[in-house]
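User: I'm putting together notes for a lab meeting next week and I want to include a structural view of one of the chains we've been expressing. I don't have a solved structure, so I'd like a prediction I can at least talk through. The sequence is below, exactly as it appears in our construct file.
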Amino acid sequence: MGYAIGLGNVWRFPYMCYENGGGAFLVPYFIMLFIVCFPIMFMEMGLGQFSSLGCISVWEISPFFKGIGYAMTLVSSYFCFYYIIIMGYSIFYMFASLQSELPWRGCNHTWNTINCFEGIKELNQTANWSNPVSTAMPNASGKVWATEEYWKYYVLDQTDGLHDMGVIRWQLLLCFIATWIIVYFCIIKGVKTSGKVVYFTATFPFLVLFILLIRGLTLDGAIDGVLYFIRPRFDKLLDAKVISIFLSLVIIHKGICLKHMI
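Assistant: Thanks for the context. Below is the predicted structure for the 262-residue chain, given as structure tokens.
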């Protein structure tokens, strides 16, 4: 369960639904969930429980497919490396949020540009748009969220291109190291330690999701946002991009990543 829920449930999956048909996106998603994801998950769990072997050794039952085990190990390595970076970003924002005034609010910081704006009300005033839902993404007006500029120009300190490599962000480096240290202490004693850690990692995300749900529903305009999010747009389902997205979401995110259970 700890592998089945995580940051993707907070920002990745809701964003994909929002961009690719809203409530209509759930139709192909649940179809693939039941005909692809669950069978793969049960197969992997069954093989793991039956053999008590890792994802490479388990293919002793059919050496011809042993390459699948090596591929799964390689994918796990890639997954861990990039996910550790995401966790480092989370730690960075955790410390940034402890300030009396959130640093990503406002457009009066040194990293802000002339295109910076703070919210929908300001965008409606400058662009004379009357529908706040349609202005959720301000790119069409040339405006950029203050939070986005904070992310790009302060947190990441993005440069103009590969010709300018920039400098190491020591704050992010420290967060990255801290994340690896936390992981080390979680697995230092193998199953004995990780078995206890999973009591927290498997339950705490559900608590956080519940807190975020209550907090989101109490915000102004929450009902409008929920209706826009779940309102089905079935024309999106004919887009080849959407089809490839939900295939990758179901098969990779919910299926193959559960290989750690083996």
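A couple of points you could mention at the meeting. The chain has ten helices and two strands. The radius of gyration is 22 Å.

User: Perfect, that's what I needed.
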